[in-house]
Amino acid sequence: MIDKRVAGPAAAVADIHDGATVMIGGFGEAGSPIELIHALIDQGAKRLTVVSNNTGSGEVGLAALLKAGRVRKVICSFPRTANSTVFPDLYRRGEVELELVPQGTLAERIRAGGAGIPAFFTPTAVGTPLAQGKEHRLFGDTECVLEYGIRADFTLIKGRCADTHGNVLYHRTARNFAPPMATAAGVTIVQVSEVVDAGQLDAEAIVTPGIFVDRIVHVPSPQQESALIAAGARYP
Amino acid sequence: MIDKRVAGPAAAVADIHDGATVMIGGFGEAGSPIELIHALIDQGAKRLTVVSNNTGSGEVGLAALLKAGRVRKVICSFPRTANSTVFPDLYRRGEVELELVPQGTLAERIRAGGAGIPAFFTPTAVGTPLAQGKEHRLFGDTECVLEYGIRADFTLIKGRCADTHGNVLYHRTARNFAPPMATAAGVTIVQVSEVVDAGQLDAEAIVTPGIFVDRIVHVPSPQQESALIAAGARYP
Amino acid sequence: MTPPATDESAAIGWSRDDIARRLAQDIPHGSYVNLGIGIPELVARFVPEGRTLIYHTENGLLGMGPSPAAGAGDPELINAGKRQVTMMPGAAFFDQSTSFAMIRGGHLDLSVLGALQVSQTGDLANWSTGEADAIPAVGGAMDLVAGVRRVFVITQHCTKEGEMKLVGECTYPLTGRAVVDRVYTDLAVIDITADGFRVVELAPGVGFDFVQERTGATLLPPIQRTAAV
Amino acid sequence: MTPPATDESAAIGWSRDDIARRLAQDIPHGSYVNLGIGIPELVARFVPEGRTLIYHTENGLLGMGPSPAAGAGDPELINAGKRQVTMMPGAAFFDQSTSFAMIRGGHLDLSVLGALQVSQTGDLANWSTGEADAIPAVGGAMDLVAGVRRVFVITQHCTKEGEMKLVGECTYPLTGRAVVDRVYTDLAVIDITADGFRVVELAPGVGFDFVQERTGATLLPPIQRTAAV
């Protein structure tokens, strides 16, 4: 019998090492695996490189991980949002490195990392500062830049429901970066609010097949970033 | 209101021009859009380039299109199967050109074509005859070859169910090449055995979003290649 | 570059709603459309009766609907601006790599974006003013302009400070090169052509010279449609 | 190259079932496995009690089960050999680009394949004999050997005609270069190491020299495991 459940968030992230590259799902608060991030803060790993579309809001979740000084570098497309002050402060003080990547190029680089494609050409960003220093090549009339796949040591994502084999379903626009990130890490950890036995999900409707998932954490009632911020919460 | 249904297979393929590149879904008989292929035979377009994983069996479907002399070139990974005689005969007589592509590279080239990625590097086929003459590059310890995206003028695929917006669900391993092919053509035509109103499908479970589909043809009882061959059928 | 000092410009020409309404007229029925955050979102309110557009939001939804009723929202059903939205019949969810495959692969018919500057060759600058202290953030803007079939810009003709936004060459960092097809401002609708800016239509009561004075490159006059040639 | 003429070779060593059974012992519980068409498929019959393997078929199914009962099959639920199969609890369907992302991206633990030739550096030839009149067909073999973490070959040690299949250098067109980890034949289990072929285990009653005579490159003897070093 195959059962990828682990005891809880702490057990799931216990082996994330100092200096690890960690992909973290979410677009804004949608899909942010807050319980896994908080467990990672408790666990204490340092000098992390974080791959995530944003940098969190308030002082919970991803922003709290940054605030705790655990992140050396962020690879993302949009590091500021309405309630985001932690990253901007760190960045202005020179305490965190930023690799800014267009959102679609970020998604494609992650997919490529997971699909064994070391590099690809894309027309996105040609003629902009984000293409500077990159290899260019013309395809027909379209100038492109060469972009490289990204892989991580760990991926932390949030799903809605998983079976014990690690097949995952998501909730609406919380899906966002989770499926490609699930494919691109040595160890993929997913928190879900529901776990069912293998065979309970429709094989036609599975979004992330279990082969991409290593550990399942059951978090029955995940917290929502905006609700925590509205309540004035900070972590830890 | 948006409704992408067309009257039938003949109407769906009416504008496929001589010399067109046509992607045809299916892995063996699973997912082969036989009714659309037969309509294309009736329609008469010539000098086609066909992108498909196989070359059909017996003298129905894809094999019948080849037998009718409509295909100038085939891009595929596996052009022979148990009951396939049409393609081998044409190939040995020098009457059809073959571009042989590893199956995964074929799938990725089609996806790239649909995703606006003109080219990508892959380790597949390095050191083999299929890598000869291709640009090589080393990424870390892994030597790779450069492969190019493929696009087509038309894609013909089979789904199980579509809504009027063109959102498509598939049946088991009949899915195979249909989702990437749907993205990679100027005009994508899907035959399905069931059509429902927009809003009747679960938005979380849609495999091919409607943006990739141009025409829906309702074929309530599609024929199965093996059954036709067992019955001694030939087309036309 | 600063146009002639004047206080009139706010009072004349199209209002923001007018610009959005004018732009909406140019979107065919059945189009797949991505509306940028802010003013571009206004366009959805003015789609002519009888036309259905399908809205794409790059964070993973096709068939996006308007904001939910108060209290009925879902914090995980949001748009690219991270605001809660709804879904229409026929909607589909997908991941980010699929969403940007739609964009980069040319599957969307139209992207409507705001601008800091648009050049006469269609260069767009809309993501960064290049200030040293700014936090750089690009999101999906570069992908949209590189991939979507047509790119419309909706913007005030000049900034609040009176700086020209339609220019010979952008001074802000680019979002994309030669990507804009048409610009809709409070003063005019202007195409980017091989010859540069060409006026398609002037706002009511706005003269050609008035617009030219507020534009940082030569404006070509509308092409006259004659009854017979 | 032809080994010493003998009629014994068919009678001694492991049967095809034996080879499959021996190979199956080396696959850990929970592995994601792709079995090639033909002899490799036998492996699934001999998985030791208490282990669950998850079978991938590259045409788009993870969690493939055995052949259906007569008359219970679905012509659109097939394996890579285009034979009807079933699905196990926990199965998932996906498209070809996802299926080969699994393969190329190193997500599968093991690929078991047949061979025409395997070289002492792990080159594999298994898709073409290079005959002029043959219809070239490759399928997913090149993707599997390039991407899957471990590649096991299961094969007779020599062809029916007595030609060696384990060779110094392949003469048939390659499927992949330096891709094979281990070979299971009727005579022995042999690792591909940095030093060449190394015998891991001999079939009962089969001597080292007997295997060496039937192998087209130097065989290294098994590494002796001593109780203490």
Unreliable segments of 5+ consecutive residues of chain C: 5-9
Mean pLDDT of chain A comes to 97
Oligomer: heterotetramer
CATH class of chain A: Alpha Beta
Pair of chains with the largest interface and how many residues each contributes: A-C, 53 and 42 residues
| Unreliable runs of chain A | none
* Beta-strand content of chain C: 15-25%
- Structure annotation, total helices of chain A: 7
Number of spatially distinct domains of chain C: 1
Number of strands of chain C: 13
Distance between the termini of chain C: 40 Å
Count up the helices of chain C. Answer: 4
Q: Could you give a short account of the major beta sheet of chain C?
A: 10 strands, mixed
CATH superfamily of chain C: Glutaconate Coenzyme A-transferase
Mean pLDDT of chain C: 94
**How many strands of chain A?**
11
Q: What would you say the CATH architecture of chain C is?
A: 3-Layer(aba) Sandwich
CATH topology category name of chain C: Glutaconate Coenzyme A-transferase
Summed up:
Helix content of chain A is 23%, strand content 27%.
List the helices and strands and how they pair.
The complex is a heterotetramer, with two copies of chain A (236 residues) and two copies of chain C (229 residues).
Chain A: H1 9-13, E1 21-24, H2 34-43, E2 48-51, H3 61-67, E3 71-76, H4 86-92, E4 97-100, H5 103-115, E5 119-122, E6 136-139, E7 142-148, E8 152-163, E9 168-169, H6 178-183, E10 185-196, E11 215-218, H7 225-230
Parallel strand pairs in A: 1-2, 1-8, 2-3, 3-4, 8-10, 10-11
Antiparallel strand pairs in A: 5-7, 6-7, 8-9
Helix pairs in contact in A: 2-3
Chain C: H1 16-24, E1 32-35, E2 54-57, E3 61-65, E4 86-93, H2 96-104, E5 110-113, E6 117-119, E7 124-125, H3 141-147, E8 150-154, E9 166-167, E10 182-184, E11 188-193, E12 196-202, H4 208-213, E13 219-220
Parallel strand pairs in C: 1-2, 1-5, 5-8, 6-9, 8-10, 12-13
Antiparallel strand pairs in C: 2-3, 3-4, 6-7, 10-11, 11-12
Helix pairs in contact in C: 2-3
